Amino acid sequence: MESAFVSGYASVLKVNFCANPFMVGIGISRERFSMDTQYWQHQIEEYWTLMNVNKTDIRNVMDMNALWGGFATALNPYPVWVMNVVPSSSENTLSAIYDRGLIGAFHDWCEPFSTYPRTYDLLHANYLLSHYKDRGSYCLLEDIMLEMDRILRPQAFVIIRDEESIISRIKELAPKFLWDV
18-177, superfamily in CATH? Predict the structure, then answer.
């Protein structure tokens, strides 16, 4: 009897894949929403292939620039917990993330993220770092990478998609953090 309750409870928590009128109201059309969802579903398959891990090897994931939560939604078939983060200086899309039944937070990546060290198995930064490139000495790429390193578990993964100049700089800095590129 208890397991039936758990199964019923789990089915209630399935992630919403359909854009509703609220999302359309904040500028997310059904077509754009659908394309975003399909894009991230394909990317997740590619990422898992490139990382060469089993579905159960990664448990805690952070999407550092979540936008509408498409990355987290695409992870729905995987047994992972995802923290969606929207940079505080970006467009307010947390309502779209919440509307999908996901969790998320605003954060300025020039500051430490409020979490225990060594929490995450995977950090995903989709065009996040270029967002901070003109902040000057207040917010250096090295500082953001140091914070990423602090919250990553040993042997964890970082997926960074960004401008070529940012990727080149990350490749230069990665050995200082003992990251394999």
Answer: Vaccinia Virus protein VP39 (3.40.50.150)
Mean of the per-residue pLDDT values for the chain?
Answer: 88
Distances (CA, A) of 146 to 49, 59, 80, 83, 108: 27, 22, 24, 19, 14
Backbone angles phi, psi at 46, to 5 degrees: -65, -45
The answer to whether 87 touches 107, Cβ cutoff 8 Å, is yes
Q: To which residue do tokens 């854009």 refer?
A: 19
Q: What are the extents of the domains in the chain?
A: 18-177
Q: How far apart are CA 37 and CA 43, in angstroms?
A: 10
Contact 30, 17 (CB under 8 A): no
Q: What is the pLDDT of residues 123-166, one digit of tens each?
A: 999 999 999 998 888 899 999 999 999 999 999 999 999 999 99
